[in-house]
Amino acid sequence: MSYDKNNIFAKILRGEIPCKKIYENEYILSFYDINPQKKIHALVVPKGEYIDLDDFSLRASEIEISELIKGISLVAKKLGISLSDNGKGYRSLVNIGENGGQEVPHLHFHLFGGEKVGKMVS
Ligand code: AMP
């Protein structure tokens, strides 16, 4: 499967579609999910063209990988949900492929918080 340049997050990254931006740097963009599942529901995406976590693990550079992981914590701090900032914690998850429930074929980490997130898998 090749990367679909017309997926919705690719369009957001190109500025063709608006988003409620939380944070951006050279490697990542973070914005609020359009259909929040919890009080706080944010997304963190790499700027590079990666379909999913497996694609990212195989092809991304060391700096892209470290910046994405660091970016998740940084966004959690900005949202006030990081334990290291006296927040109450959060859940981060990645859906991969059909069985994982991935709808948008551009790698993204979800961050859920602001309230108890509940069972791990329903
Ligand atoms: P997933 O099922 O892991 O692929 O998650 C895709 C997520 O993208 C869903 O939670 C959607 O609500 C969210 N989403 C879809 N379109 C947009 C958009 N234009 N802006 C923000 N979030 C979006």
CATH architecture, please? 2-Layer Sandwich
Biggest sheet character: 5 strands, antiparallel
Strand order of the largest sheet: 1-2-3-5-4
**How many domain units?**
1
For this structure, what is the CATH homologous superfamily?
A: HIT-like
Q: Alpha-carbon distance between the termini? A: 28 Å
Regarding CATH, which class? Alpha Beta
Q: What is the CATH third-level topology name?
A: HIT family, subunit A
The portion of residues assigned to helices is 25-40%
How many distinct beta strands? 5
Order of helices and strands: HEEEHHEHE
Rg of Cα set: 14 Å
Mean pLDDT: 97
Tally of helical runs:
4
User: Which shape, going by the Cα principal axes?
Assistant: globular
Structural class: alpha+beta
Tell me what portion of residues adopts beta-strand conformation: 15-25%
Question: Could you explain how this protein is built, in words?
Answer:
The structure is a single chain. This protein is of the alpha+beta class and 122 residues long. It has a single domain, classed as 2-Layer Sandwich (HIT family, subunit A). Helix content is 29%, strand content 20%. It contains 4 helices and 5 strands; from the N terminus they run H-E-E-E-H-H-E-H-E. The protein has a 5-stranded antiparallel β-sheet with strand order 1-2-3-5-4, with helices on one face. It starts with 7 loop residues before the first helix and ends in a 9-residue tail after the last strand. Bound molecules: adenosine monophosphate. The site of adenosine monophosphate has 11 residues, from loops.
